[in-house]
């Protein structure tokens, strides 16, 4: 009885394994037919590779069990697995995702009690996916639009000019020359404006133009202080201690030393001034060229102004230099252009004038330009 029972169980297992293998082969064939591949390659039968039995660890003394390989084959006699080779070469097209849309349903029960449970469906709105290039393009367009708006906006146009440090000049004088009222602050070059103002107004010793927001122009200036009133022909210019000459404007803070010149001094640096096309209010326009006197000549004039007789105007002669018309004796005296030894020259002249007056000599010109070789001239 026991042998018969074992035989039946063995036959039953063999029949079950054969049925499983047949069903597995049919399923694989159907699957490969759907893929449309014609080539078939037999897969190699993976046989287990025997492993060495690990000896028990000497330290632990526990014998480890023998591990089975990952790929094992059932010992029930399954047939080798077949695979088609065209699966890897076939391009699988991804399924296209439909563009989802957002749907909005508004219940009417809150608005209309009679319409409880009713809803109104609004038109569906598609989801918009913006890429990196699209966002970059939008940002560039927005930036260009902002720049154009700022450039053309009247908010950033110059509407006010303020000046600090002016004495004889006024803001009206400067603004009429600049001509920037109504211009955009982004189109104004402060360095160019400074050069233009100093060319037309040489009396500006220091000048700093700053552009402020939203539409303001600030001018920080320092004017030169005149010390000499230089008259040549019918024109007059003022000269400061550095020898820079400029047109008379307003009232000076101190009394000026007046000099009447026959011509421009040889040591001067001519610099023709650029006058405004239209006369500025309170400005005396002259046709005399602007001169830059040497600092030595300016020092000579200031030194002689301390010894010149009262109510006497200094003279300048190209040949003999600085001097004056001495009304006490009725002749002209000159001391040259150098400031060196001016005190000794004054003493020599006083002694020479007393000697000539004692002897009754009436020259036309007395020159002490050379300290050790003074002379006088009886004729012009």
Our Rg estimate from Cα atoms comes to 56 Å
Order of helices and strands: HEEEEEEHEHHEEEEEEEEHEEEHEE
**Count of helical stretches:** 6
The percent range for strand residues is 15-25%
Helix proportion range = 25-40%
Strand order of the largest sheet: 12-11-10-13-16-17-18-19-20
Provide the residue-averaged pLDDT.
76
> Major β-sheet, in short?
9 strands, mixed
- Give the terminus-to-terminus CA distance: 173 Å
Give me the secondary-structure category: alpha+beta
User: How does the overall form come out from the CA principal axes?
Assistant: rod-shaped
**Low-pLDDT sequence parts:** 57-62, 271-289
Number of extended strands? 20
How would you explain this protein's 3D organization?
The protein contains six helices and 20 strands. The protein is α+β, with helices and mostly antiparallel strands and 380 residues long. A nine-stranded mixed β-sheet has the order 12-11-10-13-16-17-18-19-20, with helices on one face. Mean pLDDT is 76; it is low at 57-62 and 271-289.
Give a concise summary.
This protein is α+β, with helices and mostly antiparallel strands and 380 residues long. The protein contains 6 helices and 20 strands.
Secondary structure: elements and pairs:
Blueprint: H1 2-35, E1 41-42, E2 82-83, E3 101-102, E4 105-107, E5 119-121, E6 125-126, H2 132-152, E7 160-164, H3 171-178, H4 190-200, E8 204-212, E9 216-223, E10 226-232, E11 235-240, E12 245-246, E13 257-261, E14 269-270, E15 291-292, H5 295-304, E16 314-317, E17 321-326, E18 331-336, H6 342-359, E19 365-367, E20 375-377
Parallel strand pairs: 7-9, 10-13, 13-16, 18-19
Antiparallel strand pairs: 1-2, 3-6, 4-5, 8-9, 10-11, 11-12, 14-15, 16-17, 17-18, 19-20
């Amino acid at each position: 009885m026991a042998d018969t029972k074992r035989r039946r169980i063995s036959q039953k297992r063999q029949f079950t394994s054969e049925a499983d293998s047949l069903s597995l082969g049919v399923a694989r064939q159907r699957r490969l037919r759907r893929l449309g591949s014609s080539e078939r390659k037999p897969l190699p039968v993976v046989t287990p590779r025997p492993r060495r039995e690990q000896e028990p660890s000497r330290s632990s003394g526990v014998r480890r069990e023998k591990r089975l390989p990952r790929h094992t084959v059932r010992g029930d006699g399954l047939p080798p697995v077949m695979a088609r080779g065209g699966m890897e070469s076939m391009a699988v097209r991804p399924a296209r995702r439909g563009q989802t849309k957002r749907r909005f349903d508004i219940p009417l029960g809150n608005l209309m009690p009679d319409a409880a449970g009713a809803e109104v469906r609004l038109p569906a709105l598609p989801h918009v996916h913006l890429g990196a290039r699209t966002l970059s393009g939008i940002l560039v367009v927005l930036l260009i639009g902002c720049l154009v708006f700022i450039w053309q906006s009247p908010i950033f146009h110059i509407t006010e000019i303020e000046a600090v440090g002016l004495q004889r000049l006024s803001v009206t004088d400067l603004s009429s020359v600049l001509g920037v009222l109504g211009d955009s602050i982004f189109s104004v070059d402060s360095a160019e404006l400074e050069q233009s103002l100093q060319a037309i107004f040489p009396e500006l010793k220091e000048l700093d133009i700053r552009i402020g927001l939203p539409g303001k122009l600030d001018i920080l200036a320092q004017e030169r202080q005149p010390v000499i009133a230089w008259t040549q022909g019918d024109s007059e210019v003022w000269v400061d201690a550095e020898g820079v000459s400029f047109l008379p404007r307003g009232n000076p803070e101190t009394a000026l030393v007046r000099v009447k010149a026959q011509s421009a001094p040889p040591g001067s640096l001519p610099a023709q001034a650029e006058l405004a096309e239209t006369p500025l209010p309170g400005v005396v326009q002259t046709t005399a060229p602007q001169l830059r006197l040497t600092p030595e000549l300016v020092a000579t004039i200031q030194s002689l102004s301390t010894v010149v007789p009262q109510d006497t105007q200094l003279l300048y002669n190209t040949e003999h230099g600085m001097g004056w018309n001495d009304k006490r004796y009725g002749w002209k005296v000159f001391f040259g252009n150098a400031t060196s030894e001016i005190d000794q020259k004054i003493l020599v002249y006083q002694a020479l004038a007393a000697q000539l007056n004692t002897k009754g000599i009436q020259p036309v010109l007395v020159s002490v330009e050379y300290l050790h070789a003074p002379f006088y001239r009886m004729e012009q």
